[in-house]
Amino acid sequence: MAALLAGFGCQSQPPIPALPYTCAVNADPSTPSLAGAPDDCSDIALPPEPTLPTPPTDPACTLTAQTGTTADNWIPDETNIDTMRIQTALNTCPVVRLVTDGGANNAFVSGPLTMNGVTLWIDQGVTLYESRDPNNYQANKTATSPGDCGKVGINDSSACTSFLTVMGTSPAIVGDGIIDGQGGERLIGHDYSWWQLSSALQTIDGSIGNPTMIDLKTGVTSFVMYRITLHNSAKFHVKITSTPPGGMAAGCPSPGAGFIVWGVTILTPSRWLNHDGLLMSPHFSRNTDGIDPGETSFATCGAMVNNTISTGDDHIAIKGGHGVSDIRVVHNHFGSGHGMSIGSETYGGVDGLTVCDLTIDADSRPVGEGASPGDMNGIRVKSDSSRGGTVTNVQFRNVCMRDVNNAILMSTAYNPLFSGMKIPQFSNILFQNIHDVNCINTVQPVVTLNGFSALYPATNIGLDNVVVDWTGPLAVSTEFAQLDLGPGPVNFAPYLAGPDVSVSPPNFQSPSSPAPINCTFPVLPAPVVPPGWKN
Amino acid sequence: MSACRKLSWLALGPLVAACSTTATPDLGGTCAVDDALTATCNLTPDGGAANLGLVGYGCTGAGERPDLEQAQYVDGIPQGIICADETPLPDGGVPSGPQNYCCTSARTPCAYNPVAACGAGTYGYECLDINRPESYNPDIVCGQGVPGGKYVEYCCAGISLPPGCSEFDGLGCAAGLIGWNCPTSPAGIVPKGQDLAANKSRADQYYLVCSVPTLSPSGKVNNFCCYPPAAVPPGGACVQDTTVPGCASGRFGFSCYGEETPSDDYPPMNCPDPGVPGTSAAGFPATLYCCDYE
């Protein structure tokens, strides 16, 4: 049995051995992830790997750190924060490079920044910290009101400005350094953190107005993120709206012409205890989506390649509120989080998403006490009648998951309470070469394949070589769906029945071959688990 | 849901939930399957024929509905058919005469709720499962679901929902507040979460907290400044009340049924004056407050 599990990528068990604390030092997984065979995604055209820019020659464009943090004291001093000098450089230099002083000074601290068509390059060993002072982010400050950013109990998603606002043509954020949002650390002037603010609204699923770490504004073209590491955002890490030059009308002249996210690491939280000794966890770091293309406006012709993401909300969420098309998500690895998601906004349409060679490992980073099944999700296509639209021409190929609770969720009633006439309409969605491995999970993984109604069913939903370990009749739900099975196995096929569900071929017998795809999960950088924590 | 309505339903609930019987009053009318109407019910919006699983009913008599006849609770689980009215119904959804319906042919985990607080041409269902009534009957439209105990309550209509409120930025509301316009007729319309635009997170926050309205110069629109509050602490007993006497437009009125103050339940509220004994908008004894958003 142990050999069999090892073949699937399970580690010796139980328990999972402690993971080495390499966070913030070495963001690369020590072993490569792989879902299937190395060349299974070779038919998907990708852009060339980006490169680092030429170092700036103007000394004013290379900024040297003036303060430092250490492994024992990771809260930077904010007495003389760097907002002004970084912003000045971003206003005047095509490339702004942040470097250490060669000694102990390795940190920058800043309030909100704006970059327009320039490159921010953060060197290895350098961390750019977001200020912990909410007064630096007040979005609605007036003569009579200090604003709501940082206030407890305010369900106002626009209360704070974003940390890094990105505009213009070909902006880029690159380098082997780190941007740290300090989301779990105590705010200046308060006895709580950004994440505690967000948690206060959890019972109503409220939307906190914490700063987004990287926020692209409408009109951006050809955005690039390359090799940067992001930690502990107060809210979403990256909101992408970007198209090729010429906008939506330009189509996709070459892969990644709209935007490229390559070799980026998002690990949130980056440690299990904050500076006050309070426990943190992905579950606690609520609303910290990894990368959200389409959140603000159109996102087209994008490539997200070789990224590692573990966070407290969706790893990647394709937001179809405006229009998303031709996105390629290839060779990525996810840890804990809410999944590779589409939606819940789909009313602008999602047309053309290919996900290939994706590993999602719920075991790599414990989610902490109070975690819910949703903290360990796999593939999700979610919407509801308040925000639904067309989702079509989507492929999930070569996806390995380990111990996730929702392996595949295609739901048109993501929040059934919401009302509206924007009916989700899902069609031409292929799940191919999917393998959900069960190693230590005590919760049976669930498969949900739901259309909206008999009038608006999910159509042409393909399942080919989809194997979910430890499946069963109570773990499969489907209704209002037209399912095309085979030619490869679908081990939960006997349970695909429900209102207005059609299965083609009608008497599909799941074959024994080909075998489920091979899954190799990397060791994800993670802090040592505090004593007594459940994995 | 107004408190009196809710209380009446709570009183009725145990009677119908404790046994496997219908909650059907004798209304003196009848409903019968209408084959011609059934064919019409199963047309798609573009006029094509489809098997939507709907059955047409023609009903006579005031208050008679097919889903009322078949609503029942089995071991506390709502069951029944869901019916879309083919012509608009009066407020509360109770027909005053003959009426045609397109209904689901199979039972659903939703039961018609004869005492739901649904106004302006809508009528109510209580559902147990995650699916909205529209998933079972594509001819119906429903408002935002409101969790009530173990059920979710919906107000629905077969044609279209009446117009609600809309966001309006031009009211000069203070930072953190959102401006809203609401029709003055029928009376008592206040902004709800379901009125938020699709790009806004509605969360589960059906109720917004809103100021005492200002009547627009035209007299056709009430202007509100509102915010979506955080969760009221368990046991919180203050509810917004836009009819507190003497509470000026732009301020926030509350009725509190316990010892708590609005500041306890809604932290941004500052209530400079002590509460005054009075009667809430729902008609119950309460302590009334007039507060400011800070």
Question: In short, what is this structure?
Answer:
By secondary structure, chain A is mainly β. Chain A has helices spanning 2-8, 83-92, 194-199, and strands at 34-35, 62-64, 95-99, 107-110, 113-116, 119-122, 127-130, 164-167, 172-174, 178-180, 214-216, 223-226, 229-231, 238-240, 259-262, 265-267, 291-293, 299-305, 308-310, 316-318, 324-334, 340-342, 350-361, 377-382, 390-402, 406-411, 425-437, 446-450, 458-468, 476-479, 481-485, 501-504, 519-520. Chain A contains 3 helices and 33 strands.
What report would you give on this structure?
The complex is a heterodimer of chains A (535) and B (294). Chain A is mostly beta strands. Helices cover 4% and strands 31% of the residues of chain A. Chain A is built from 3 helices and 33 strands. In chain A, helix 2 links the parallel strand 2 (62-64) and strand 3. Chain B has 294 residues and is of the alpha+beta class. In chain B, 12% of the residues lie in helices and 30% in strands. Chain B has 5 helices and 21 strands. In chain B, strands 7, 8, 9, 10 and 11 form a 5-stranded antiparallel β-sheet that branches. In chain B, a hairpin with a 2-residue loop joins strand 10 (146-148) and strand 11 (151-157). Chain B is elongated, with a radius of gyration of 21 Å. The two termini of chain B are 28 Å apart. Chains A and B meet through loops of A and helix 4 and strand 9 of B.
